Amino acid sequence: MNAMNRLALAISLAFPLVGHAGEVEVLHWWTSGGEKRAADTLQKLVEQKGHTWKDFAVAGGGGEAAMTVLKTRAVSGNPPSAAQIKGPDIQEWGELGLLADLDEVAEQGRWDELLPRQVTEVMQYDGSYVAVPVNVHRVNWLWVNPEVFEKAGAQPPTTLDELWAAADRLQAAGYIAIAHGGQPWQDGTVFEDLALSILGPEDYHKAFVDLDEEVLTGDRMVQAFAALKKLRSYVDADAAGRDWNRATGLVIDGKAGMQIMGDWAKSEWTAANKKAGEDYQCLPFPGTQGSFAYNIDSLAMFKLSDEDDRKAQEDLARTVIEPEFQQVFNQNKGSIPVRLDQDMSAFDSCAQKSMQDFKQAAQGEGLQPSLAHGMAASSYVQGAVFDVVTNFFNDPNADPQQAARQLAAAIQAVQ
Ligand code: GAL
Hints:
The chain has helices at residues 3-14, 33-48, 64-75, 89-95, 103-108, 111-114, 117-123, 146-152, 160-172, 184-208, 213-216, 219-232, 244-252, 265-271, 307-321, 323-333, 349-361, 379-394, 400-413, and strands spanning 23-28, 52-57, 82-84, 124-125, 128-129, 131-133, 137-138, 141-144, 176-179, 256-260, 281-284, 292-295, 298-301, 367-369. By secondary structure, it is of the alpha/beta class. The protein folds into 2 domains: 21-137 and 296-353, Periplasmic binding protein-like II (D-Maltodextrin-Binding Protein, domain 2, 3-Layer(aba) Sandwich); 138-294 and 371-414, Periplasmic binding protein-like II (D-Maltodextrin-Binding Protein, domain 2, 3-Layer(aba) Sandwich), CATH 3.40.190.10. It is globular and about 60 Å long. It starts with a helix and ends with a helix.
């Protein structure tokens, strides 16, 4: 070995990561107080591997704004290394030929063995991994402030009738019954829960995955719209435009009794040092007890030319599946780990219940993709549903029967 080689070897032993140091730019919309804490854990772990993290956070719940920004960046030929892209949208980006192949990382990490089949299928385009799953969120939750419930003499609801009864009590006692943020994706989230409750998982699937016209215009869909109308009467006058985390804040602060939201809401309770099962309760959304509407966050990787950045990107993908990340990130984010072998003992009671329900629902029809969070259908269908639902929600004279017909027509138009 000559002197130069010896020097190179010495340097590589002293600074093992320097040769691999690259930059990862990560686009996401985890900007609420609690979610930012979760995102920070990923940044820290990537930096520990010697890479530079370039945060590309685009505020806006549900990610619509983030997707718009991503498209602009991609069109100009300058996409980030990784972006929070989910569900069927991954296929669309794959078709554009922009996504990187992660098969080697996936093979080394045994993703096929560690991850549920429902997850691995979504992460692949044309038989190759192009995205790494971060977590599993459950959308059909109801978040309850038990102290407020007690003061109002309300009971935690398990059916829709009980939900209305609890809301009546809360309202009569002067509380906001249901903390809501009037944004299309939040209206869509609430509507999805009502549809899952009223249609049941099989017809929910026919409506929002198969886009079956008969179910979309059927009696139960009409009932779901009627229920949304009823729910509207339990929302306060300032709901329009309110961010989801501010709605969560109203429940945390005891101004409202409950919130219908996916378990990213738990990130706010956790950040406020509140304890699951004591300071707050997580209940499956009334009437959806055996079902689990899933929303899997994933980071899709874009093709890169710089070798160091590519290595950094692969390290990012590896890190995401590691148990350490899965634990700390998900404890802060409110979701459950995507690995089936993860030790859940350090998680709170809501996460433990969620994992148990996920596994159980996966054995039958109960496990269903969330439409409002881009897991069930394309972003075009999702957008069409949001339009109809939001218009309905904001029009006091809207007719449920007509809304169901409009829903089917709007979906048909974007296919
Ligand atoms: C979802 C996303 C979650 C959370 C939520 C609120 O679509 O999957 O991680 O960020 O939006 O913005």
